[in-house]
Amino acid sequence: MLLINKTLLKMSKGFRGYIALIALLKLLTLAGIAMFAQSISGFLGGLFDPGSVDFRESVRTAFVSAVIILISEVLIGDVEYRCTAKSRIVLRERIFSKILLLDVGNIEKMGTTHAVAAAVDGIEAMQIYYSKYLPGLIYCAISPFYLFWKLKEASFTAALFLLIVSLILLPANNFFRSVVRKLKDSYWVSFLNLTGYYLESLYGLTTIMLFGRDRERAGILETKTGDFCRKIMGIMRLNFKAFLFSDLVIYSSVFITVLMVTAQLSKGEISLASALLTLMLGYGFFGSIRILMHSSHQALAGVAASQNLSRIFDIDTGRPSKPFVQKEESDGFVGIRLENVEYSYEDRDGVLNNVSIDIERGKTTALVGQSGSGKTTVSGILMRFFDPQSGEIRFEGTDYACYEPGELRKKIIMVPQFVSIFSGTIEDNLLVAKPDATIEEMHKALELARLKDWVTGLPDGLKTDVGDAGAKLSGGQRQKIGIARVLLGNAQYIIFDEATSSVDFESEREIWACIGELSRMRTLVVISHRLSTIRRADRIYVLSGGKVAERGSHEKLMEQNGIYTNLVSEQAVLEARGVNGEVAV
Ligand SMILES: Nc1ncnc2c1ncn2[C@@H]1O[C@H](COP(=O)(O)OP(=O)(O)OP(=O)(O)O)[C@@H](O)[C@H]1O
């Protein structure tokens, strides 16, 4: 069983030419070595039989072959480097495009740390496979036959013996390789486990320190590191045994060849030049196998990594798609209509049950309910982060499945609970939404988001650096930049998913004032735990256990004296205790 991995081969599209070229150059080096050995053995043999050899010709051939070896070796280094660089670019491009296709709703199927490990360390591990192992394998399959062909005239018996041993040696190593392969798989799992835990600890360092869990974490990290080290040591021990076994076979075979050649020479069956040529090229049968063995153990890491990568590539990112057929709403409704929508996460059934919601264009619709009632899931479905398992959604009369997610997001946009800010300037972060936005447009959006005065008061204004992932911004400033970004996009429908839950009171007041102003210009879907802020919404949906329990205006819902009334009273008690402040849409 040679290490020909289908997934890795499939992934090599785009740089296969480099792999073939490396193999070709390796064969050219071998031809140079054979030429050199032939001229040197001929030269030395000629010393005892002066008339039989043209010495000047031998020296010239030796020189030419040395030049060939030198040039092909230099070229091998260069092409190997190019192959590594190209495969890195091609594979990273592919994995990042796939990750982008996975979209928000699918990212959990893979896990962020797995994506990082696959895209960085996984691809590093695969380099050896492409730049060393595969060319080595092609070379190994051809070189023993080439050497046999070169030596058959000199000593047929020795050449045949060396060919047979070299052909047996490669499969014999499979025993070791299959064990190493198993170890490598568990090595990779252990590696991902360690990297994932390390990254998670790094991201959550503040929380870990706050709760005094640093020693406990350090202990677990040490255990995981120990496990990883044991896996590496296991592989190294087995590698050592494999090399010991192969070297024993190789050097025994070379020794037997020496005996065979010496016997033939003493019997006068072959000339001194033939004996020397056989001895000089004999080791060449195994040199290639040794190199291959060396890279095959490293290539196994690439195989293990590629399995992880192929799991990511295999995630189905297809979305239901329908031809675009405009359908008139019979009752003249214009907006987004969810009808009998059902949704379950991969490992959680019945998160949304038979949910029907109307989001009327130009109006403000609020979604409220206890934590875990399904509000964010509804917003994810509205953004087409994921599609419902059953039910219908229509956007202004057209089935949602007629729109590509990207197309839909130009019409419907969201301000999430935690806005992502990227390192760079305030301007860079705004241009994410509209790369060709003018300064005036940016200022207008910032003004609506109640951030213009602060930005223009800064010495660098829009060019102010926000730090790594927005580290130099307050929670309120982050959310306001997120809102300004959304406003630049001109989407008619805006979803605010708990957009003020992580900001200070003053920012919250300003953001709600902004939302109030926006409700006169755009269609809003507001998800908020703060019921006092959504009182003036045109329609409020109360979700409970993944179902729409109540719907109507604030006044109508209060009259019903149901879940909504209870939620309002509970909150009034909290607000009276000063837990929440009072703000309004
Ligand atoms: N990715 C996920 N995988 C599995 N279950 C999930 C996932 N996301 C949410 N859930 C579950 O789905 C249910 C609804 O979650 P959702 O986030 O929609 O509620 P919510 O009303 O927005 O809650 P909150 O107000 O606390 O944000 C919860 O029981 C939650 O545990």
SSE blueprint:
Layout: H1 6-11, H2 16-47, H3 55-106, H4 112-151, H5 156-172, H6 174-203, H7 205-210, H8 214-266, H9 272-282, H10 284-313, E1 335-345, E2 348-360, E3 364-369, H11 375-382, E4 390-395, E5 398-399, H12 405-408, E6 412-415, H13 426-431, H14 439-448, H15 452-457, H16 475-488, E7 493-497, H17 505-518, E8 523-527, E9 539-544, E10 547-552, H18 554-560, H19 563-576
Parallel strand pairs: 3-8, 3-9, 6-7, 7-8
Antiparallel strand pairs: 1-2, 1-4, 4-5, 9-10
Helix pairs in contact: 2-3, 2-4, 2-9, 3-4, 4-5, 4-10, 5-8, 5-10, 6-8, 6-10, 8-9, 8-10, 14-16
Description:
The chain folds into two domains: 7-311, ABC transporter type 1, transmembrane domain (ABC transporter transmembrane region fold), CATH 1.20.1560.10; 332-403 and 524-585, Rossmann fold. With 585 residues, it is of the alpha/beta class. The protein starts with 5 loop residues before the first helix and ends in a 9-residue tail after the last helix. The chain has helices at residues 6-11, 16-47, 55-106, 112-151, 156-172, 174-203, 205-210, 214-266, 272-282, 284-313, 375-382, 405-408, 426-431, 439-448, 452-457, 475-488, 505-518, 554-560, 563-576; strands spanning 335-345, 348-360, 364-369, 390-395, 398-399, 412-415, 493-497, 523-527, 539-544, 547-552. Adenosine-5'-triphosphate binds next to β2 and α11.
